[in-house]
């Protein structure tokens, strides 16, 4: 038995774990809610999540009347008319990605 104990201690602690832990991704801090603006317009096109609107503008947002692309997620588009030519009322806010719709409804 003494021989077994000496043999085991001579081996050392064994192979050490050499894997490097990856740093954890830092949680993204929620951005401050940006103000929302209202406007009306006509749908020009929808490609993926980009809705193009010809709109009357929003002076509070510094957005003159014209044609702009808006980011539109499924929850906003779910019950809204999305065919080109549909007249709509909408709410939006500015994000780092661009203009994002928060509400869209037929008018």
Uncertain spans: 25-30
The helix/strand series, from N terminus to C terminus, equals: HEEEHEE
Q: Provide the spatial order of strands within the biggest beta sheet.
A: 3-2-1-4-5
Q: According to CATH, what is the topology of the domain at 35-107?
A: OB fold (Dihydrolipoamide Acetyltransferase, E2P)
By CATH reckoning, the class of the domain at 35-107 would read: Mainly Beta
How far apart the termini lie comes to 90 Å
Q: Enumerate how many helices there are, as a single number.
A: 2
Residue fraction in strands: 35-45%
Q: Could you characterize the architecture of this molecule?
A:
With 107 residues, the protein is mainly β. The protein has a domain at 35-107: Copper binding periplasmic protein CusF (OB fold (Dihydrolipoamide Acetyltransferase, E2P), Beta Barrel), CATH 2.40.50. It is 13% helix and 36% strand. The protein contains 2 helices and 5 strands. Strands 3-2-1-4-5 form a 5-stranded antiparallel β-sheet, with no helix packed on it. The protein starts with a helix and ends with a strand. Residues 25-30 have low confidence and may be disordered.
């Amino acid at each position: 038995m003494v021989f077994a104990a000496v043999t085991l201690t001579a081996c050392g602690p064994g192979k050490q774990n050499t894997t490097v832990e990856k740093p954890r991704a830092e949680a993204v801090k929620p951005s401050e809610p940006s103000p929302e603006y209202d406007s009306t317009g006509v749908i020009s096109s929808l490609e993926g999540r980009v809705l193009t609107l010809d709109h009357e503008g929003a002076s509070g947002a510094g957005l003159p009347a014209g044609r702009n692309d808006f980011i539109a997620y499924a929850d906003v588009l779910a019950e809204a008319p999305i065919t080109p030519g549909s007249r709509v009322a909408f709410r939006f806010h500015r994000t780092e990605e661009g203009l994002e719709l928060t509400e869209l409804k037929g008018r």
